[in-house]
Amino acid sequence: MREWPEVRLLRVIMRTNAALREHHRRLLEPQDVSMTDFDFLAALGPRLTAPAGRLARVDCGQPFDVFVDFAHTPEAFRKERGITARKVSDDEVVERCVFALVNEGARILDEKIAARASDIDIVYLNGYGFPQHRGGPMLHADIVGLPNVVRSLRRFAAEPGAGPWWQPAPLLARLADDGKTFN
Fold first, then answer.
1. Each residue's pLDDT tens digit, 120-140
2. Neighbours of 60 (CB within 10 A)
């Protein structure tokens, strides 16, 4: 089975009709089941058995069964990595969402995929529904202040288990150091 970068909280096993199960079984035969994708667990149907005490079936009233994998709960994930749970403020949630867009936007500008920061803002305003009163993520970053954005990104990057995408983009760090803005 493919390992996902995030913890697997749920495994979903579809209940399908016999013909579809047989079709998936035939697809699986020449393959090693351990190398199959998450979706192919549906093909195993009744042949899939869980170790006692590890998986628990949850009936959601759906046409599929949901099994909670207690070996991969958030608590087990945190304990394995030495992470302690904490309260996250609404402001931090917004910062993480918007500043990730800003950081990626800075990479896009640095790679010359977009000509101007306002081009990125227009895409987010018209294509992704970014709040118009904020003017787009790049303008929002200019209003908040690029040094504040870089400081927050560095704080996120310093947390245990943080991915490399939290490192500020070179263009963003350079603009913040020089006291400039995107627009």
1. 999 999 999 898 988 999 999
2. 9
